[in-house]
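Structure, all two chains, one model.
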Amino acid sequence: METSVVPDIANVVEKWKDKKGNLIMILHEIQNQYGYVPREISFQLSKLLDVPLARIYEVLTFYNYFKLKPPGKYTVSVCMGTACYLKGAPELLEELHHILGIKEGETTKDGMFQLEIVRCLGCCGLAPVVKIGNKIYGGLKRSDIVNLLSQYSKEGAPVAQPV
Amino acid sequence: MSKQITMTIDGVAVSVPDDYTIMQAADSAGIHIPRLCYHSKLSQFGACRICVVDVEGMKNYAPACSTQVKDGMILQTHSAGIRKARKVLIELLLNNHPRDCQVCGKSGECTLQEMAESFGVKSDEFSFEGERKTFETDRSSVAVRRDSEKCILCGKCVRVCSEIQGANVLTFSHRGFRANVVPAYNLGLGESVCTNCGQCINVCPTGALLEHDNTEEVWHAIHDPNKVVMVQIAPAVRVAIGEGFGNEPGKDMTYETVTALRMLGFDIVFDTQFSADLTIIEEGHEFIRRLTQKGKLPMITSCSPGWIKFCETFHPEFLENISTCKSPQQMMGAVIKTYYADKSGIYPAKIYSVSIMPCTAKKFEAARPEMNSSGYQDVDAVLTTRELIKMIKEAGIDFNRLKKSEFDHPLGESSGAAPIFGATGGVMEAALRTVYEVVTGKELAQIDFTDVRGLEGIREAVIPVNEIEVRVAVTYGLANVHKLLTEIEQGKRQYHFIEIMTCPGGCIGGGGQPYPAGEAEALDTSVYEKRAQGLYGIDERKVIRKSHLNPDITKIYQEFLKEPLGKVSHKLLHTHYHARHPKGVPARIKDTVNLFKAK
């Protein structure tokens, strides 16, 4: 891991080196590349840019956008906007906690699912809504969740059709 | 150039330079505006808002710490509105605070507690049922204990760690309700790059940062009939301990402390100043050897354990420059469990060895696994000056009325070169007194090396020793150290010998020293100056002022060590250090960085 990532970071650092506010831009590029910002890379950046590791950690945790852990294969986003909330989104979230054994912002041990909370996906008519990957499922009940998740096999593509 | 302007604070006309902030203007006029996040030696932060003042013609209350003065400005520091605003701010902080003052280690010295009291915040006037932040207390470090629930996010620890100590261990993480002060990647302090210097404790306004408390285990040893409890006191402790009992900083209370330690139940009381003399003999000879036999130069002192861990973590390329001598604390520990154990017939396993230090990093140093060359851990427990003060108070000892008493022999005598170890420049001066006489065989005409004294961040001197012009440097504060080492690497500076102390002012400003009382604040140079004067006073009052003339030092070499840098010394009094990396960080990172540079 260590040696394989170095040339990538080297290029990114080279590109932004003398520009003001470069840390955030560099972290953006790293996250685009890896889906998150690996700790090893933060440490290397700290050396290359002469920015304390603590400062990098501060920036990474200040912005919700930056991820410190590898994302799951599928992001499960539960809409907690007003309409979904009233139509029972908290129950769906509770069920997801229960089945996946993780809290929002976390990823399952097998790396398949990552749980997120979002505010309004723009389809309030379908409330309550859950998005898995880039597919949207609406009008869900607590009891639908098990089947819904089981349709995402470990091998890859979802079997289910979106609503 | 700044101009003088005139303004009115609380009806008092004040004349100050126009680049002052309201806070600075008020301070200079003797008006104390309450503050939590402001510190005169640290960068502006403007987070706590406790220092708001009512400026005539301004729409909102202005934070005094970050508002510049203007000619003709009229302001009130405690108008009805301001009083109310401050009270509300404190109430909001308390709402998210454990409120367990009775059992908090900072009680009585906590700024938040003091403010709640002085602003008249009453528990029956405000109530709160909302969520309160919950964090695990970080007990991973043997030196510093971090309780984030008590943290009010003033950020002084973050700034002192970065601006004074250049270690950048602490940072803010997350934001809003989840905001917290942590080391990178939320590591425990014990797993992080923390140098254990304890300056964060000194500036913390609450009990969020405190030393790891070892008093219970020391009490336990004292009360254990099977243990012989021995104790040593560092130089800087004796000129600061009095502050815990209402005395001025710098008052020499060495012999009252000896009495108090005996009353507490310590069986034998030794003086770290003896082993400071011993350090000078070993370190002086090591320096002479390096100088005359083309050894690695510059040689850097090894007494300050915060600096040692800083070097291991941030500047491993200088590890070979560090003197192999253990610090006086560790030398004393090793000598107690060998030389003294033999002499007194006390089995070393029965000895419980305690040291009283101005320092939190000494706790880490004593716990280093390599510090056991006698077969036993050199030092079993380290107490800070503050912890000893607490023990003395608990035992109901009226410290100021104590009679003086002498240290035990044979590890209690010291020369005037030893007390000054506690002030920045002191180790250098002590070493030069001995090195000069050993090399030249002539008596030193001028014993005081005033060039290396003082509080300037980096000081230099050139001392002719026979044909060699020995170039020395003295520095303290790890940010200064980082600067000095970087410039040495770049070839901008060249020295033979460098003294490095971790804390501002040296050990007298250590992370375990009493919190300044009254108007003085943490990092206050006037306090450092007084404590340093105390130590130089002890030096001047001694008849023998050079380590190599201490008769008990001569005796320990005759009876036990035989010769400086000899076989016994090598085993017991010397050690080596290793590069270290925080947990979760690849150890070979330097290689990959070099790979990139070569590209």
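The longest helix of chain A spans residues 2-16.
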